[in-house]
Automatic annotation (TrEMBL):
Lineage: Bacteria, Pseudomonadati, Pseudomonadota, Alphaproteobacteria, Sphingomonadales
UniProt cross-references to InterPro entries, sorted A to Z: Sugar_tfrase_PEP-CTERM_Stp1
MF terms (GO), sorted A to Z: transferase activity
SUPFAM superfamilies noted in UniProt: UDP-Glycosyltransferase/glycogen phosphorylase (SSF53756)
Name of the molecule in the record: Sugar transferase (PEP-CTERM/EpsH1 system associated)
Taxonomic source organism: Sphingomonas japonica
Pfam family, one: Glyco_trans_1_4
Length: 398
């Protein structure tokens, strides 16, 4: 073992059933091979408080802090303090105490921070190596939000983007390494802040996400168009509502037996209302997304706002599905032509029509996508670069 390591996460990395938790879980699991990991994380779902025991295999200690601050209070605190809402929403005295308790350990050598919101808990003079996994450039995401919406919302999002970018730059200046999920995100960060970054791409468990694995089968018929994701996450909500408005009517008219199936927990009211439209199904939370992906004639990710590597896309590829994505959803994925990419409604509808009309070609595309993911995106290969960052002896040997 290389020593003790504090792993800070904005959300408990278990179960690994959504994008951020998947990445955080595999980071933690990888680091536990060489370190005694002390996990300190928030839980924003009461059910997650029961997962401490499941993490015992990879942690020397595990402290989970419930996150209960309402959004209105975070907003008031942000306006009063001049801080980004992204920070005040995660500012909690109990978390400060939990971090201080681990920092008091004499053997602590490394700190890994997952997600920018948690960087506010970094001590100024820790004497530890610090790795900051930004994942995506959050400030750029808010800048894109500022391009649309009502005037007050545009002002708020622009404010968030400016103040969060200043914070991100300050954090990058203090840490030993800044990580991003794609070369595009790292380049964007370098251009905006002047700080270099290391790319640690997302991976995929290709043994679990395998059409030959054991999982509950789902019958969706022969023409199901499937979207998966956390359905209270604004970019996902925007993607499915836009697709339902701009693309789905043409697809359903051309293929009356087709279904657009929106799979994911916590659908907003706007998403739930989509189920009132012809051919659209909203599932809510499901036990295992694999059966729904396996039943898809086409998996779609028509995101209009996206940062980094989309786990939903890698999962669909690993399940050997033909996958149709927007350009921003494909960005950062080295897919080698195994994704179909389109942005405007007519092109998306035409691509779906083609895939539904030629089952053999669609199946061949899905098989090629799985081969690409298996060769390119295994977690061990993706995280190998992390060893040199947190282990100076390996870095010197390299």
């Amino acid at each position: 073992m290389s020593g003790d390591l504090l792993f800070l996460a904005h959300r408990i990395p278990y179960p690994p059933d959504r994008g951020d938790k998947i990445r955080a879980f595999h980071l933690l699991k990888h680091l536990a091979r060489t370190h005694r990991v002390h996990l300190v994380a928030f839980a924003d779902d009461p059910r997650d408080l029961g997962h401490r025991g499941a993490l015992a295999e990879w942690t020397a200690s595990c402290t989970i802090v419930p996150r209960t601050k309402p959004k209105w209070r975070a907003g008031v605190e942000a306006l009063a303090s001049g801080k980004p809402i992204s920070l005040t929403a995660f500012d909690d005295p109990a978390m400060h105490r939990a971090v201080a308790a681990v920092m008091a350990r004499p053997a602590l050598d490394d700190i890994v921070v997952f997600s920018g919101q948690m960087a506010q808990y970094l001590p100024r003079d820790s004497g530890c190596r610090i790795v900051m996994d930004f994942c995506d450039m959050d400030s750029a995401k808010f800048a894109s939000y500022a391009a649309s919406g009502s005037a007050p919302m545009r002002w708020l999002m622009a404010r968030e983007a400016r103040r969060l970018q200043a914070f991100e730059s300050d954090v990058a200046a203090r840490v030993d390494a800044s990580l991003f999920v794609s070369a595009a995100e790292a380049a964007l960060f370098a251009e905006a802040t002047g700080h270099t970054a290391t790319v640690v791409e997302n991976g995929i468990d290709t043994e679990r996400f395998d059409p030959a694995a054991a999982f509950a089968q789902v019958d969706l018929g022969s023409a199901a168009i499937v979207f998966t994701g956390q359905m209270d996450y604004p970019p996902n909500v925007d993607a499915v509502t836009w697709f339902a408005d701009a693309v789905w009517p043409a697809v359903h008219a051309r293929h009356p037996g087709s279904r657009f199936v929106i799979v994911g927990r916590a659908p907003t009211e706007a998403v739930r209302r989509l189920a009132d439209r012809p051919g659209i199904t909203v599932t809510g939370e499901v036990d295992d997304v694999r059966g729904w992906l396996a039943a898809a004639a086409v998996a779609v990710a028509p995101l209009r706002v996206a940062r980094g590597v989309q786990n939903k896309v890698l999962e669909a590829m690993a399940m050997a599905r033909p996958v149709l994505v927007s350009a921003v959803a494909a960005e950062g994925i080295d897919h080698g032509g195994t994704l179909r990419v389109a942005d405007d409604p007519a092109a998306l509808a035409a691509a779906i029509d083609t895939l539904l009309g030629d089952a053999d070609a669609a199946a061949a595309l899905g098989r090629a996508a799985r081969e690409r993911v298996r060769d390119r995106y295994g977690w061990d290969a993706r995280l190998a670069v992390l060893d040199a960052i947190v282990d100076p002896s390996r870095r010197a040997a390299a």
